[in-house]
Amino acid sequence: AIESALRPSDQSVSCRSGNRSMRVAENERRKKAEEPFVLALKYFSDVQTGTPVTGNDEFEKNLVLVERVAYSNGLSPEAISIMLEFAMSLRMGSSPCVRVLKCLLPSSVVPQEAVVRGVVWLNVGKMPITTQVLFLKWVLTVFDMIDAKDQLRAVYGFIFSFITEENLCPFVCHLLYLLTRKESVRAFRVRKLMDLQSKLGRQPFLLHLLSLYKVFSPELVALSVPSRVKSGFKNHNSPWKVALAAVQRRNGAQIASAISLALPVGDRTSSRKRKHGHLQIPVLTSVTNKQPHTEQNSRKKLIPLVQIQSFDQLLKTMHQIELPAQMGSLLGSGLALQYLDCVQEESALLRLNFWLGCALQEEFLFGSDDDAAHIPEETLQFLDKLLSAQHFLQEGFSSSDAFLYKFLNVWDGSLMRPQILGLLSNIPVIPALRKLLFEPLTQLFFTSSLFFKCGLMECLNSMLVKWLTWHSVYALEDDLDISLGSHTSVNMTLSGFKDSVMELVHFVGRLASVGLQLEGCHTLLLSFVLDFYGTVCDTFLKFGLPLVVMPPAGVFYPAFFAADPISLDRLAHIMHRYRVNLTSAKNQEKATEAFHISRQTFQEFNHYLVFMVNCLWNSRMFKPGMDVRLSEELLQKSNVPQYWTRFDLIHHPALMSYAFDFHQKCWPGRKEMDLNSIKVPEPWSWYLQYLFNQGFDGLKDFFQSNINQHSSSGSAEAC
After folding, report:
1. Is the whole model's pTM more than 0.85, yes or no?
2. Keyword set for this entry (predicted)?
């Protein structure tokens, strides 16, 4: 029994011993496999200056080995440092430099010290200009993988000195753009950039760097920088794109946000062959892949954003936050968006917009049309994440707006419709609405299906609500200037804002009028149109904007003659709200001369009001002075009895079923249906109460506010 009790223990000990032996053997095999690679790195670390390349078999063998490891699993930080030092120091001349730079594929992070030493080597020796360009392209490609940026920013002035080299200038500007902080902006640097611009012209890369300088020190940059600069910085990752993507897949980690997002803007031939599905939100990670309590972080007292777990913790460490390595990862974290909204760091927003602009424009504007029929799920998830971030911040990103202005010109109206319309609704108030938005949307509206028309109406209504809400929150009472967004310093006067809102409302009115004709006054489209004017009618009281715009005849009359009671009731509610807003505006106009609603608006309202009252209440549909006019001869030929009553509260097509039901309940014994009997005073009041009890609150409010019921024939009370 004792022996049997010991056997399991003996077996367990034997099993553990066997596993340990296997691990030891595996480690030995790995060491043997790694030993040639270690020896290769030692060779490049110790090689002497002047060693020849031609006929050097040892050099070729070691470099092939390093390339094999780099292209399969990537290079460690130590290997990156050794190989970069070897290439930039030109110990074996400039011929191996390009080959080495192209195989610098990091497996995790890039040491900052190695990059700084590489920058210093640019000014030493006789390195060919093409090799210098390739090095800068590599730095830009792996920028988000560099483990820290403090030493790079410390040599900001040294990097800036290369800006005078015409071939290096675009890449140096891009690197400076990523490194710039407020303390980096100096008057002499602004002057140098301005001198370069006078020499090279208004180059986009110079304008982008100047725009960032202007954000930090507007008093130093007197230049008017365009809000949208075409193709400011290109992506320079072509030499490493495919190889880095392969390393990324093997290592199962996100390597660099720029790698999987885009091709160079100028590489149009290869970009046409791209397929959708490269849009991914990077994982929120620290700038370094080290533990949080490193010496460097302790010295700087920075806390990586990825370590913040609650909003309370975010508030306590708001000014100690270290931004993530990949700015695109901010879109996938609620706490990161809260930090972005609270702090509103301009450099972070500019980098995020740059990343997002490259992602959207390269993916959709330069993608293949053959892939439009099938959109991968990850692309839709990316756009949904972007929409969620914009809804959280309650405003859009300038890069997504710029993308939309271009994309609308090539959009077919069906590709990712919910996501595109959602992004479109977040566009802020801008000048040049007609050219950027109205012209492409007009073409899409009149050539698309009913459901697109309804979706666009909903989108424009949401856009208007956001404009008006934003106005009511951000309008400044002292000078009536309105900031175009919490992330920009551009201002718009109240008059300019009113003009933009009025232009949008008139644009929707034109679309709705023609759209209702094209779709035969379809009830679904009419519902979305009335939703829009449900917003417009309350611009003054609900949103505090001194503006009232009446719907056009092409919207009012289809809603009035609609066969469904809901549309008629909603029209009555809209007219009631117009009356309330205009009455309040009229009273305020008397109190202050600075406020004014045009007399034409009052006239239009009174005109619609009289028409509705005469038709619904007074049964005077085709009487002289009414808008709807038909010859007496034609009306007689129609054989419609009492044709002037056909659109009153009893005979209106939308309400006749209710009149029938009321008649049967009021006079259940009658065999003949006489709807005119409802007009007797006592049944008439019962019928009105019956209608109002059916939920027609719009009709109830309209008649209670507009009808003088003391007379037998109701009269409209005009504003």
Report:
1. no
2. Centromere, Chromosome, Nucleus
